[in-house]
């Protein structure tokens, strides 16, 4: 029997990998989310990726970073499968060995997840066996031995079969993904949850917070527009019935709260602006929302925090950790265990059924979603997810500002115009914004911008600036002044290790 051509064997390798992944994904539906090798491998890749590479991915792809990762992983799998299958023969099964090694890695990734059992690797084992069987079948040569009465080109026949198996594998995987989402979804649980009326409601937002005569971002960010940066490749699905919050460590007594236990605490509604540490100067990884929940200090008080504890290590159901200073959770800034966002239950991608919201700290040390564990400890005893990768242990938010109008490279008509943007300095608050315009008609001096009404020190502040535009190229620069009197620094710093800094500058042309 003749060995198929090299190109045909490469196609066979990709088809075998597709079948292996498809079978694994479909069988994982029966065994549950813990058996999802796709998510397990992706999560392992995220965990093993060096911090600077993660920061590059976020800076480059923003909230599409997970899609990029998924496509990249599939691309690597396809490439390895093709290259190793090109060396596959009946006697030297190089491609088959590669599939087995990939299956072993998948099993290891599945078993590394919290709560996984040996049964959870069954789908991966089955998918691996199917992948090897398909590859051995396609390179066996039986499809290249053409009967005398068969005029079909054997190479073409084999290629068509490989394409058919590749399509079937991809379709099987897609069906598995859809079924997995349907069977594990907590959408019905969320829809059935009636958010409690706050005992302490947030003050109403007056119209004066929004400057007039300029199209700026809304003071309150809609849920579907709120940024999402986290390490969860697949959004965790955790119901209220399964949720619990364990508080332990340096406490007088360990406590585990079920969701219904929260009802005895005062419900608080609070507007808080959250900021991602990966937000570049002028970036949009920031949003302002009304959060409903319970004061973390009330929950910790029942456990009795030891006086020498200085950090709370919070853990998500998917294993992510964040280290938050104790004083930020027990002080008067009203850090929340949030269960609602903008008047409705938390969206699943933003932490349903419960997450942390801590004013004044970047999210990597404070905003744990799907939170299930609070360990009271010390910074010299424990490290969180991002601090292990080189970020600073504490993440106070820097005084920053952004220009939204005009956009970079915009053409502006000559005459009276109004520019604008946002500024933030949680929890100090913003008391002033200054703008400098360089170019024809620009003085190059800092001039005060008009501020929208201040809502609270824990939220951003919108600003506007009226100007008589004269033709020519221009740049506009902005800086903020917080309520402590600190002027936003001009020193340029990248997001790593404790947040970006510098003045946001936009170039535009007046015509």
Nutshell version of this structure?
This protein has helices at residues 6-31, 37-48, 51-61, 65-85, 94-111, 122-139, 154-184, 187-191, 296-303, 326-330, and strands at 244-249, 255-258, 267-275, 286-295, 311-316, 321-325, 336-341, 344-345, 355-357, 371-377, 400-405, 411-412, 415-424, 430-438, 447-448, 450-451, 461-469, 472-482, 504-510. With 511 residues, it is α+β, with helices and mostly antiparallel strands. The model has no long low-confidence stretch (mean pLDDT 92).
Describe the 3D structure:
The chain is of the alpha+beta class and 511 residues long. It has 3 domains: 6-184, no CATH class; 207-389, Sulfite Oxidase, Chain A, domain 2 (Alpha-Beta Complex); 400-510, Sandwich (Immunoglobulin-like), CATH 2.60.40. Helices cover 30% and strands 23% of the residues. It is built from 10 helices and 19 strands. It has helices at residues 6-31, 37-48, 51-61, 65-85, 94-111, 122-139, 154-184, 187-191, 296-303, 326-330, and strands spanning 244-249, 255-258, 267-275, 286-295, 311-316, 321-325, 336-341, 344-345, 355-357, 371-377, 400-405, 411-412, 415-424, 430-438, 447-448, 450-451, 461-469, 472-482, 504-510. A 5-stranded mixed beta sheet has the order 2-1-10-5-6. Strands 3, 4, 7, 8 and 9 form a 5-stranded antiparallel beta sheet that branches. Strand 14 (430-438) and strand 15 (447-448) form a beta hairpin. Helix 4 runs antiparallel to helix 5 (94-111). The radius of gyration is 28 Å and the shape is globular.
